[in-house]
Specification:
It contains eight helices and seven strands, in the order αβββαβαβααβααβα. It is α/β, with parallel strands linked by helices. The protein has one domain: Rossmann fold, CATH 3.40.50. The longest helix has 14 residues. The protein is globular and about 45 Å long.
Length: 170
């Protein structure tokens, strides 16, 4: 989807509460190639700008450690321009840092989680049911192999956000 179509979407309802939309970092916002070069998913900064312009709060929720998250933000400072909060594995659950962590949006105060990891949604469905599981937006994994290939993630994200706004979070 063209960036211009993101901005052409219907205006947000004025009296609606802001959503907290959290993004995973690795394989959602960034990826590393075989040489260790880190790449930013094309259009991600614009998507964050779009969310901010609609009054939503943009967070980062990564299972990576704080040192890695800080390095990524140093490498891509534009990520910080629209990010209100950054959570690393130490913030999610220090006891499980370094192993697979369940990103529990209820406990973390997140309305929608944008991630590439389907098992998080399945964990939420098992614990909370479909209503919460549907608040996990699963994007295609961003890898060096798909650099420059449009994989439909922008449309997936905007459709979910607009639906959530229209349905008042239901």
């Amino acid at each position: 989807m063209e960036l211009s179509l993101l901005h052409a979407a219907s205006p947000r309802i004025e009296n609606q509460a802001a959503l907290v939309v959290a993004f995973d970092l690795d394989n959602t916002i960034i990826c590393a190639d075989d040489s260790g070069n880190v790449h930013l998913r094309p259009g991600m900064i614009e998507a964050m700008q779009w969310l901010s312009s609609r009054g939503h709060k943009v967070w980062i929720c990564s299972s990576a450690d704080r040192q890695w998250v800080d390095l990524v933000f140093k490498r891509f400072p534009a990520l910080g321009c629209h990010t209100e909060r950054i959570m690393s594995c130490e913030d999610i659950d220090p006891a499980t840092c370094g192993i697979r962590q369940f990103k529990d949006i209820i406990r973390l105060g997140i309305d929608l989680l944008v991630d590439d990891h389907e098992p998080y949604r399945e964990d939420a469905r098992r614990i909370y049911g479909d209503g919460v599981a549907n608040r996990y937006i699963i994007l295609p994994k961003f890898t060096a192999e798909v650099l420059g290939i449009e994989d439909g993630w922008r449309k997936c994200l905007t459709d979910k956000i607009l639906c959530h706004e229209k349905c008042d979070g239901q």
